[in-house]
Amino acid sequence: MGAMWLAGRLFAVLLALITAAGMVYAPAQAAPPAWGGCAQFLGDAPVITTARCTTVAVPIDWANPQGAQAQLAVIRIPASGPRIGTLMVNPGGPGASAVDTVASMGTALAASPLGQQFDLVGFDPRGVGYSTPQLRCRSDAEFDAYRSEPMADYSPAGVAHIEEVYRTFAQSCLDNMGPQFLANIGTASAAQDMDAVRAALGEEQLSYLGFSYGTELGTAYAQRYPERVRAMVLDGALDPGSDPISESVWQLTGFQRAFDDYAADCAKSPDCPLGTDPTQFVARYHQLIDPLVARPAATSDGRGLGYADAITGTANALYGKRYWPYLTSGLLGLQRGTDPGDLLQLADGYWHRDATGRYRNQQDAFTAIRCVDAPYPTDPAAWVDADRRTRAAAPFMGYGTFTGYAPRDTCALWPVPSTRAPAEATSPGPGKVIVVSTTRDPATPYEAGVELARQLEAPLVSFEGTQHTVVFNGDECVDTTVLAFLEGLVQPPPGLRC
Fold it and tell me: Which residues form the AB hydrolase-1 domain (predicted)?
């Protein structure tokens, strides 16, 4: 999942593309890496027996290649048959582990043409997953406390409180990671890291499959190293020329469409907690969740469901239809005064909290990366206007009425500067890229895929559906098209819709 939206806030934004600039340095690690087992990263988790793992050293600051180093976790599953080359995969986020993703893909695709013809490779970007140092800003207890904040009071005092919560989080990131690491966490550095991994693999060119934020990383890499791209598939894209607030409005429009699709499907049942009148779906939803601002609902595990977690759980369910029954169950719990625990579990899934109360670092990395990947306005008036726009784009997510006050996003208060400005992408060359976009994708709206395909002068494959990303998710039309491109660079027919 790309995760893409921050709980209880209207201003969640996916990252925009970094245009890398400056000198190109040789990777810090010249010697071939030592490959071994993957237990160092995956522990006892099941993984295909042919998987091998290693680390690749990269400078924390590419402008100082002899300085402090980070260690990137890398997994490789060799092709089981006649080999075409390496297929590097990034699952998105930013902050999701490519090591985990490729470990799962390796088993699922072992007997497929993809697994037979490509080494499947994933590396965890700096600060992410199993790479070290791992970016962490807060303890598990601090994360629980953060989630308990409704972030819904847009009075002057409420806005001041919300911004103080954001500042405290930002300061903890700075204290824990230091200014150098935090300033170099973004996609500009990750694109150079990706090329260091390519060099460590001994490959002249890469094939690449990027989902969600992985399209940002792939596009940044293709701009910086166009000659090193063999074939690139970008699924679930964003428009790199869009500013952060406009990107958020686009994204929230996508979530509203997905909410409408969910509500229409729910209304087929007479027991739907949103009722059966389409004009009342949003109002009925607010009747269920808005009281949680003042009083969380009791859950069987004793933790309780607050307003921010109800919003988070709802958004998480909108990523795909398979989660809709759990959203209905949670909303029915609120309606009937029974246990709405499925909404809490959906929120836990979004925040990557396990049953023991431990959090992965994905959300800390998500925020830190997006904050240096785009310039966020610091003028409070810009965020008041953003509140107006986002309420119109996604009314199901807006609490109360427009007040004329709104908190600035965490990234507007970030302690290190951004490293890029919005800019359109450039093509790495004809025939090297295809873009896949889902018509009712909640997190990366279809129109953004159309824009990226235009900018890259690449074919667009349109998938009719309500879900986030689609490649190798079981749709025959999409999967055969992508496989033909990766295998033989076969271009999809113009205007293909699946």
Answer: 86-474
